[in-house]
Amino acid sequence: MNALGRWIKSCRDLLFSGDLVDVGFRFAILGKGLSGLFEMIGSALLFFLNPTRMNRLLTFLAHRLFSTWPWQPVANILLHFGMHFSTNAQIFGILYLLSHGVIKCILMLLLWRKKPWAYPLAILSILLFMAYQIDRICIRPTVMMVALTVFDAAMIGLTVVEYRRVRRLFRAKKRECPEAGH
User: Fold this and answer.
1) Can you state the angle between helices 20-48 and 143-176, rounded to 10 degrees?
2) Kind and range of the H or E element at 134?
3) Distance CA 126, CA 145 (A)
4) CA–CA distance from 16 to each of 22, 24, 42, 64, 138 (Å)?
5) Which residue positions in the chain have pLDDT lower than 50?
6) What is the pLDDT of residue 122?
């Protein structure tokens, strides 16, 4: 087996070993980490899309890709967004996506490495982001924001379960080898 094959096998074994909660938690971490990476990339792209460029891009997409019937509502949303996209919205978008992406990537990396102190920090940060999301849902509900909030709630549940397991293992190791805990 070549190096790529061994790497794929080790990734598969790592992702799919353990019970359903372990596998679900690993996939949730992977999904959150990738979305954080895409948010950081999005913030970089948004940096170069000033309001005029954004309006042109969205108008192009609306007219070229989404102008036929099943996609007409999408085209209308894109056109509306493009007309109301301002410099303030651009700055807010850059800062929000960048901070949210960096925080998610760092926390998911720490959770992947099973750092016991990262679990409460991750739960707190997800709760804070959920508070913002719920505020947005109350002002202007969207299916996407509700779905994201439900996913974050599930992520908190999985994180709590996994934290209890990691804490139990950490305490057991500490009892077996007391000098390792210092």
Assistant:
1) 130
2) helix 118-139
3) 14
4) 8, 9, 30, 42, 38
5) none
6) 94
Length of the chain: 182
Neighbours of 133 (CB within 10 A): 17
Question: Token digits for 8?
Answer: 């794929």
Sign of torsion over alpha carbons 159, 165, 167, 169: negative
The pLDDT score that the predictor gives to residue 11 is 65
pLDDT the model gives residue 92 = 86
pLDDT at 180: 55
Question: Residue 44: its pLDDT value, please?
Answer: 93
Residue 152 CA, distance from chain mean position: 9
DSSP H or E run through 147: helix 143-176
How confident is the model at residue 110, as a pLDDT?
93
Q: Which two tokens stand for residue 23?
A: 């596998």
* DSSP codes joined into one string, 15-82: HH-S-HHHHHHHHHHHHHHHHHHHHHHHHHHHHH--HHHHHHHHHHHHHHTS-SGGGHHHHHHHHHHH
